[in-house]
Amino acid sequence: MRRPLVAGNWKMHGTRASVAELIEGLRQQALPGDVEVAVFPSTLHVTQVAAGLKGAAIAVGAQNCAVTPAPGALTGEVAASQLL
Description:
Elements: E1 5-9, H1 16-28, E2 36-40, H2 46-52, E3 59-60
Parallel strand pairs: 1-2, 2-3
């Protein structure tokens, strides 16, 4: 049986300062071992959040990416290869 998943999509919310506060708050949480936890910050903050939650039992993902995995001339899009 699959473990329950609790995930938060941050939409267009957050500044570097407020994201730092969220990271600190998440690191202080006592997370149950039988629940998967994930956060999906805006693309601007994925690197900050991934670094800040390194070693924590919280997965970090991207909210969206372009259909094509490779970089290209798609203004405003993010290639999947840029999220690695």
